[in-house]
Specification:
The chain is an alpha+beta fold. It has helices at about 10-15, 40-45, 100-115, 125-130, 135; strands at about 20-25, 50-55, 65-75, 80-90, 90-95. Strands 1-5-4-3-2 form a five-stranded antiparallel β-sheet. The model has no long low-confidence stretch (mean pLDDT about 90).
Length: about 140
C-alpha cells in the first residue's frame, strides 16, 4: 500500500492532528506504552506491513540502521496505526500515529535527520556523505 505524500510540514500536521505517540524508546523511562508491553508492540510493528524503509548496511551486508514506516495493529485497542520504527546497534525507538500522512512525514524527517546527524557510533566512509541520501543509505525511498 502506498501512502499519499503529505504536502504540509510536520509541525503543521502536528497542530492539526496531534503529535506522534512515543511507543518504545531504548533510553526513555516514560512512553505512552509501559516497558512491560514493549515486546508485544515490537512484534506487532515488525509483523505489520512495511510501507517504506531506509537501511544502512555494514560492509558484510548486515543492516546497522533501519528506519521503517509500517502499518500495524495496535495490540491494546486493535486499531490500525502507522509507526515509524528506528533500529540501530546503538538503540531503538518507535513512534506512531493514527493519521498516515503524519507518520509518513515523520518517517521522512527521521531519514533526513539520520543523514544530517548520524548515530555517533556509525562509522562510514566520507564518500557515503558526499552523494546525498542515495549514497548514505543502501536502501531508501526518500528523495
Amino acid at each position: 500500500m502506498g501512502l499519499a505524500l503529505a504536502l504540509k510540514p510536520l509541525d503543521e500536521l502536528f497542530a492539526e492532528h496531534g503529535p506522534m505517540r512515543s511507543v518504545r524508546h531504548h533510553a526513555k523511562h516514560e512512553t505512552a506504552v509501559p516497558r512491560e508491553q514493549y515486546a508485544v508492540y515490537a512484534r506487532n510493528v515488525f509483523a505489520g506491513e512495511a510501507l517504506r524503509q531506509s537501511v544502512v548496511k555494514a560492509d558484510n551486508g548486515t543492516p546497522i540502521v533501519t528506519i521503517r514506516l509500517a502499518e500495524y495493529i495496535e495490540p491494546v485497542t486493535g486499531a490500525t496505526r502507522y509507526a515509524v520504527d528506528y533500529w540501530s546497534l546503538g538503540g531503538f525507538w518507535t513512534t506512531d500515529h493514527e493519521v498516515p500522512a503524519v507518520a509518513e512525514t515523520a518517517y521522512e524527517e527521521a531519514v533526513r535527520a539520520e543523514f544530517a546527524r548520524p548515530t555517533r557510533w556509525l562509522r562510514l566512509s566520507p564518500a557515503r556523505f558526499l552523494g546525498g541520501l542515495a549514497h548514505f543509505y543502501d536502501e531508501t525511498d526518500v528523495l
